[in-house]
Amino acid sequence: MSTDYLLKRADFIFKNENDWEEVLTKSIHRTPNELINELISSELKGRGGAGFPTGLKWKVTAEDKSDVKYVICNADEGEPGTFKDREILSKVPFKVLTAIAICGYVIGARQGYIYLRGEYFFLQSELNKAIKEFEFYCRQINFDFSIKIFMGSGAYICGEETALFESMEGKRGEPRNKPPYPTSFGYMGKPTVINNVETLAHTYTIFKYGSKRFYDLGVQFSRGTKLFSVSGDTPKPGIYELELGMSLVDFVEEFGDDDTKAVQVGGASGFLVPRKKFAETTIGYQGRLVGISLPTGGSMMIFNSSRSMFNVLDNYLVFFAEESCGQCTPCRVGCQQLLRGIKAVKRGEKPASYLDKMLKLAETMQLTAKCGLGQSVANSFSSIVENFREEMIY
Amino acid sequence: MEKKIKITINGASFEVEKGISILEAARNAGVIIPTLCYHKDLCVAGNCRVCVVEIVGQKRLAPACATPCEEGIEVLTNTLKVRNSRKHIIELLLAEHNAECTSCYKNGNCELQKLASDFKIMTQDFIHLVPFKNYTIDMYSPSIIKDDSKCIRCQRCVRTCAELQGVNALTMAYKGEHAKITAFFEKSLNEVVCTNCGQCIIHCPTGALVEKNYIEEVWSAIADKTKYVVIQTAPAVRVGLGEELGFDAGERVTGKMVSALKRLGFDAVMDTDFTADLTIMEEGTELLTRLKRALVDKDPDVKLPMATSCSPGWIKFIEHIYPEFLSHLSSCKSPQQMFGALVKTYYAKARKIDPDKIVSVSVMPCTAKKFEANRPEMHDSGYKDVDYVLTTRELAIMIKQAGIDFMKLEDTHYDRLMGESTGAGVIFGATGGVMEAALRTAYELVTGREVPFENLNITPVRGLEGIKEASIKIEKPLKEWSFLEGVELKCAIAHGLVNAKTVMDSVKAGTSNYHFIEFMACPGGCLGGGGQPIPTNPEIRRKRAAAIYAEDAGMPLRKSHLNPEIIKIYNDFLVKPLSDKSHHLLHTKYTPRKRY
Amino acid sequence: MKPVNELIKSLADRYGRERSSLLPILQGVVEQEKYLSEYSMVEIARELDLPATEVYGTATFYSFLEYKKMGRYIIRLCKTITCAMKGENQILLTIQEMLKIKLGETTPDGLFSLLHTNCLGFCHKAPAMLINNDVYTELTPEKVREILTGYMNRKEEQEENVN
Predict the structure, then answer these.
(1) Is B475 inside any structural domain?
(2) Are B435 and B461 in contact (CB under 8 A)?
(3) How many domains does chain B contain in total?
(4) Does C109 fall in a domain?
């Protein structure tokens, strides 16, 4: 199996192309429909982790009749193990700015925002310089568009799109009920396209080279390349652009330390894959016919045999208990229960069978939590407890 | 009309209006879906997740309260998946809740307890979280007790305080495991902008917010043979009390209530309606005096519009938020405090009782009255004018404790001297009632004729619209009021402090030209007060309002100035409205407070 | 340094007085003051015509908007998974020993506050920490001592400048 999808490196995003003026000018001389179709045929899916088709998102927002719309670049990169967006914004900011502006052109928005997490404050001044230069060019070509940075202040949940809107509106970053969706009711109640930094960077590639170039990379249902943030027990931590559809075996061969016990795909809210399942696991969006395919925002954390999976899970659950917004019951109370629960089992205060009760609870959290955070806590919890049950008990 | 769409609920087909929530559609279809954070008065939060249902074809469950019906959806409300999830959620809530139900004030009237009972949560496997949190109980307010260990973070109180009252004394603070509902910087409610209106209490599903009760104090007073315990009952109590004692909403239980109070052992049972009538005499005269000084004397110091002052929640609100407008308030005390001041003077003298021996108790639909009775200035009788304030709910508890079979009681009349009232006094309990009562009397005083409305029913000021306006043109006044000839008296009525805010902002901006405004802190007026039975919701408010107006319509006297005991008190004691004695006992001053 | 109330006014002038300006204003105050006092929050509420509780509820949601007095340099040591795996606890010990404070505390001279924080996005260079807005990565006990010494000397320089 693994030989079907050898690890294929690519170099689009960080390639220093210095042609953003041209890409912008060329793009805004095409019709919005052409651009939308380009995106749709590229099959680009959101790179933040959720994997919503980007072209469709733009299309629905473009069709809304509202005179005020917004484009927001989600740079609230908070998922543990992810650091690619920071790198994109510091290395190739103009690609992102260009993509934001093209999106604005497509959907009919004149204002774009970058929601930058508070932890990345140090990026702000360089980014502002870039924005200044970018806006200057826009004025030169009579393209009415401006971009502002909105700083976050330390809240993981604001990466959730509706929580991010609330935060920008000056409120607690609590996710909203959906529907309505951002495409019709986003920032300030206006139709809004909100895309992850990397997603926008990919649209730059697509508008520049055409959708085919992108589509030809990757595999069915998972087209194109993806940035992976590699960390943990690896000799070469860092950011790598790889084609989607790779097998975890190949990945570990390339990045592991020959002693890899498990890989956490998709950060704390993602899945832990134990060694025995590497062969059947590929990295991409759901929909492959054989084996497990895991979607991801690109966080790949590698654990070798010296690591205690109990400690890993404990660390994640502390994170979730703190970073849950706290409004809905399953997430607020559920995270605390899972955290205290595994400790109680470990200490012998609860029987091992309590793990099964918690697995059911995790399922309820997945079914009933208000937003993606609460729903996805179960991913890491269940995959760790199911695969490393003994480590949880002894 | 909105387009109808087809949906199915548990296999049965229904046509519903597009856009209504699954919860609403289900309720209309006779399918009950449990809720906690949902309340008809408030915006939808979708926080508690108790109302989750299955939509065929969707992986996740959907909150029925926050999910609009779409064409063709198939909703299942009672599958194994749904039941297990709901059970889990209830278990989770119980795990963070101090579930010592037997020692809880809300035992028996708690929505969480009911859910736990309905779903038969027999074991509590999850780890109890309360011991890990340093919860404190805020009991410094004379009106409201806030116990965080019983809070389930549904935020109904937060939404109530913001959406209905515009006060924002409460907020959700922190996040995640630390998320809790608190006042500014975790201060006590008596240190912040809280108006003590108690709307948070009647919207709280658990025992996290309850009134400070004075039941034991009142029992002790009754048991003390040396004390003479007098009780007054507010207008709205008689249309709410029945709900706590087995009657449907909207039942008037005035006579039974008086019987019950006598059986409880009160030495005299009298009526706040009497001082409501007295308020009309004083406040009506004050309004006419202000009009004269403004229109004839052109006195720049006279402040119009004049605002009513019967609602202590409203008073504390204006003291905090619009302190520069305190001179617009009528100087009249609320009927409760007028009653208190008279009971230890006029009544004591007439009945030859040492006022020191009188314990003055009131039963109110209100928690702000507890604060009001404790204001330092409320000692004009030389004693604390009102010693204890009970809510409608506390009275019901006492009646139950005393083993009185309320339903079987005969009707009894109030005791004399301060027990006679008119329909005008009764309608104080509903929004617009003070205005209507005032107009009935003032118009007649000025013109010598009855208000030009059929059966004295001034319908434009009635109803549950948040802000109401009315005007009455004065024609052919009596000679002494000739300056009012042709004057169109403009009035406004606001209930619910968020509406009060809107009206006050228009006054502040100078965009309105009212002469007289009635303000009530609680939605619906006192009948929807923070001391009334739980639940209180739009439908129940309508029923209580209907009961109030029915009570008024059935009274032989419906104008305050015709109340024989009012005529008597002016003859025997007060001399005339706004007399020195009136000023001393019945009027008061207000205290500017900080907004922040 | 401007007095807080003037700072708040100028921030409101700059960002506007709408609710959506609340976060930038809170951030602006924290930038100078390092935390939001009761007084600051009331002044912000007054300036934006918001209830004070709304300001409080919003501010306490965000980890970087402190509402307790903080030192001039706020150390935020990342405690999330990769940093934890790469010796965050050793770094914590080093800082605690050097500054003689525990997590959540501020040195008596008001110079340093020590806090834990969640993922800083430097997992490939773990362990990492922020001191105010500056990132320090691939920390070792030696490196941390050097960094903190640098800040302490900065303090002395500043005091000399004042003198």
Answers:
(1) yes
(2) yes
(3) 3
(4) yes
Q: Which of A50-54, B246-250, B504-508 has the lowest mean pLDDT?
A: A50-54
Of C59, C83, C105, the residue that ends a domain is C59
Query: Of A157, A191, A215, which marks where a domain is finished?
Result: A215
Kindly provide the ipTM of the predicted complex, given to two decimals. 0.95
- Say if residue C116 is in the same domain as residue C78: yes
Give a yes or no: residue A184 inside a domain.
yes
Chain A's closest residue to C128, CA to CA, is A119
Is residue C64 assigned to a domain?
no
Q: Phi first, then psi: what are they for B147, rounded to 5°?
A: -115, 100
**Do the Cβ atoms of B183 and C53 come within 8 Å?**
yes
Catalytic residue (one of B369, B370, B543, B559): B369
Is residue A26 a part of any domain in this protein?
A: yes
B505/B321 Cα distance (integer angstroms): 11
DSSP string, A235-285: SS-EEEEEETT-BHHHHHHHHS-S-EEEEEESGGGSEEEEGGGTTTEEES-
By residue range, what is the domain housing residue A388? 309-393
In a domain, A167, yes or no: yes
Number of H helices, E strands in chain C: 7, 4
- Let me know whether B68 and B187 are in one domain: no
Report the pLDDT value the prediction gives residue A1, as an integer from 0 to 100: 36
Tokens at B177, concatenated: 């495991």
| pLDDT above 70: residue A4 | no
Are B57 and B148 members of one domain? no
When pLDDT is cut at 50, 70 and 90, the band that residue B2 belongs to is low
Out of B143, B149, B259, B330, the active site residue is B330
Domain range for B571 is: 287-333+421-527+558-586
C-alpha pair distances (Å), A36 with each of A20, A41, A64, A198, A206: 19, 9, 14, 18, 11
Q: What is the pLDDT of residue C163?
A: 45
Please state at what angle helix A329-346 crosses helix A372-387, rounded to 10 degrees: 20
Active site residue B161: no
Using a CB-CB cut-off of 8 Å, the residues of chain A touching C79 are: 315, 318
* Cβ contact A118–C64 (<8 Å): yes
Does C119 fall in a domain? yes
Q: Is-catalytic flag, B450?
A: no
Number of separate domains in chain C = 2
pTM of the predicted structure, to 2 decimals: 0.96
Say how many CB pairs under 8 Å bridge B and C.
39
Range of the domain at C125: 73-162
Question: Residue C159 — pLDDT band, cuts 50, 70, 90?
Answer: low
Contacts 24+ apart (CB under 8 A), C84-91: C84/A311, C84/A315, C85/A232, C85/A233, C85/A303, C85/A307, C85/C126, C86/C126, C86/C127, C87/C127, C87/C139, C87/C140, C88/C126, C88/C127, C90/C141, C91/C127, C91/C129, C91/C139, C91/C140, C91/C141, C91/C144
Q: Considering the domain boundaries, does residue B136 fall inside one?
A: yes
Instruction: Return d(Cα B521, Cα B196) in angstroms, integer.
Output: 10
Decide if B222 is inside a domain: no
- Asked if B487 and B474 count as a contact pair (C-beta separation under 8 A), the reply is yes
Q: Which of B377, B480, B485, B488 is catalytic?
A: B377
